[in-house]
Design brief:
- By secondary structure, the protein is an alpha+beta fold.
- It folds into three domains: 15-128, Rossmann fold; 159-228, ATP-grasp fold, A domain (Dna Ligase, domain 1, 2-Layer Sandwich), CATH 3.30.1490.20; 234-480, D-amino Acid Aminotransferase, Chain A, domain 1 (2-Layer Sandwich), CATH 3.30.470.
- Helix content is 33%, strand content 25%.
- It contains 16 helices and 22 strands.
- The protein has helices at residues 15-21, 38-51, 67-71, 90-99, 116-124, 134-141, 143-152, 168-178, 201-219, 276-292, 324-331, 335-343, 423-436, 446-453, 456-459, 467-474; strands at 31-34, 54-60, 74-79, 104-106, 128-129, 182-190, 193-198, 224-228, 234-242, 248-260, 263-269, 297-305, 311-317, 360-367, 369-370, 376-377, 380-381, 385-386, 393-396, 404-405, 412-420, 438-439.
- The strands form six sheets. Strands 13-12-9-10-11-14-21-19 form an eight-stranded antiparallel beta sheet, sandwiched between helices. A five-stranded parallel beta sheet has the order 3-2-1-4-5, with helices on both faces.
- α5 (116-124) packs antiparallel against α6.
- The radius of gyration is 22 Å and the shape is globular.
- The protein starts with 14 loop residues before the first helix and ends in a 7-residue tail after the last helix.
- 51% of the residues are buried.
- The model is unreliable at 1-5 (pLDDT under 50).
- The structure holds ligand MV4.
- Ligand MV4 is lined by residues 158, 183, 191-192, 227-230, 233, 235, 259, 262, 302, 304, 314-315, 465.
Length: 481
């Protein structure tokens, strides 16, 4: 703790007092291990506090001064700074869980959150994995099986191959039949990793082999499948909650079209593109997809939506997502608490008809990156840190003045969620809050996000997944200084 601006004591916050003020815990789950770091670890600590559940933080040597370590009831160091030596070490995490006698593990997002083997190990050890059954993770982790499963349930999918294609000859036949352009995707991929686009037979032959080799290297599974390439789609995903008693609801959509190289920069709900009738149709399809997967806990159904309003299932994410606060602010439902209650075996306390969408929310992911230099990561020590506040402003962040951003993890240092009764208010509030946000010592995406909040195309709700490339090419880099 020597390097922490919080001083020499273990924490500014005496755990004793926190425990004394905790509400009565009505769940069977008494203690949760948080197998993550950063803002999501802090988010989970906060939910547990309000539920009266004790928390165990696990952390790497690079995260000694992390807030989640300080705010948890207990903390165990599980290894070196590299993820592979700590947050990805299932064996050490389960050992920590057993030593500290926790009832459940919350995996957050990234790291082991969609690792079916880890979820299964938890199940075997009698520790609740706060997420779906390992079998659902395995099924949805194979993107070809996922598509086939939801297709059989009547959910529209992008036209393409029926499952993986193992020879170039067969693949090129299918590509011709689908019609170019086509996209080649890794069965074990997802989130944009391992995708190649082909415009004709010649480029297809090349991209098919590149895709297979990349997939083999990245995932240890070289299988690929083929889809019609949808040009300039919107990326719209539906939030699902499903309890262990066969009850599944959706909590509306998030429009995540503003991305760069598959890194989302801004997410919002409701989508400015969806009509009430399309929202209803897609929501029903999302529930069908989750039910087909035998899904339990919180999950996300990802769709591509074309300019005509055709929608296609592309994949399911079997974890809580970074952008979950957007849905929380629109619906008033705490998704992390719901995850814990579902893992505890409780019934959902509401029906689809009880869920109302009364607000508009916009989230900006604040990354320590330099947008003017091709988004190069900008790790280092934050000098002054001042977070915005006021009506309709939420900041989920683990950083503070004097915090050193480790270079070993992703560059997200916080999320700014602004909400109000209309999209216009959420936009104006986002611009205002971004202007108030001070983070000295490292470059951040804040100036870029301010520029987007004042860009007519974004303001008019016309952003597709092609928006960021277009915006960057028409905006001089000095606008982000
Ligand atoms: C596509 C596509 C076009 N056609 N599939 C990227 C993330 C991954 N989940 C799926 N992705 C895409 N799949 C077909 N058949 C375009 C993308 C895509 C994209 C999707 C969502 C958000 C941003 C994107 C940026 C480029 C490509």
């Amino acid at each position: 703790m020597a390097d922490s601006i919080l001083g020499d004591s273990a924490s500014l916050w005496p755990a004793q007092e926190q425990r004394a003020r905790s509400p009565k815990n009505t769940t069977m789950i008494q203690k949760i291990l948080i197998a993550n770091r950063g803002e999501i670890a802090l988010r989970i600590v906060r939910a547990c506090r309000e539920l009266g559940i004790k928390t165990l933080a696990v952390y790497s040597e690079a995260d000694v001064q992390s807030l989640h370590v300080q705010l948890a009831d207990e903390a165990i160091c599980i290894g070196g700074p590299r993820s592979a030596d700590s947050y990805l070490r299932a064996d050490r995490i389960i050992a920590a869980a057993e030593i500290a006698d926790v009832d459940a593990i919350h995996p957050g997002y990234g790291f082991l959150s969609e690792n079916a083997k880890f979820a299964q190990q938890c199940e075997t050890c009698g520790i609740k994995f706060i997420g779906p059954k390992s079998e659902s993770i395995r099924m949805m982790g194979d993107k070809a099986i996922a598509k086939d499963t939801v297709r059989k349930a009547g959910v529209p999918i992008v036209p393409g191959s029926d499952g993986p294609i193992d020879t170039e000859g067969e693949a090129v036949k299918i590509a011709r039949k689908i019609g170019y352009p086509v996209i080649i995707k890794a069965v074990a991929g997802g989130g944009g990793r391992g995708m190649r686009i082909a415009h004709n037979d010649v480029s297809f032959a090349k991209e098919y082999h590149v895709a297979r080799n990349e997939a083999e290297k990245a995932f240890g599974n070289g299988q690929v499948y083929i889809e019609k390439y949808i040009e300039r789609p919107r990326h719209i995903e539906f939030q699902i909650l499903a309890d262990a008693h066969g009850h599944t609801v959706h909590l509306g959509e998030r429009d995540c079209s503003v991305q760069r190289r598959h890194q989302k920069l801004i997410e919002e709900s409701p989508s400015p593109f969806l009509t009430p009738s399309l929202r209803k149709t897609m929501g029903k399809a999302a529930i069908k997809a989750a039910v087909a997967a035998g899904y339990e806990n919180a999950g996300t159904i990802e769709f591509l939506v074309d300019a005509k309003g055709n929608f296609y299932f592309i994949e399911m994410n079997t974890r809580i997502q970074v952008e979950h606060p957007v849905t929380e602010e629109v619906t008033g439902i705490d998704l992390i608490k719901q995850q814990i209650r579902i893992a505890n075996g409780e019934k959902l306390g509401f029906d689809q008809g009880d869920i109302t969408f009364t607000k508009h929310a916009i989230e900006c992911r604040i990354n320590a990156e330099d947008p003017a230099r091709n988004f190069t990561p900008s790790p280092g020590t934050i000098g002054l840190y001042y977070a915005p506040g006021g009506h309709g402003v939420r900041v989920d962040s683990h950083v503070y003045s004097g915090y050193t951003i480790p270079s070993h993890y992703d560059s997200m240092i916080g999320k700014l969620i602004c909400f109000g009764s209309t999209r216009k208010i959420a936009l104006e509030r986002s611009y205002r809050a971004l202007s108030e946000y001070l983070i000295r010592g490292v470059k951040t995406t804040i100036p870029l996000q301010k520029a987007i909040m004042s860009d007519p195309t974004f303001i008019e709700g016309k952003a597709t997944t092609a928006y960021m490339d277009d915006f960057m090419s028409r905006t001089p880099p000095d606008l982000f200084l």
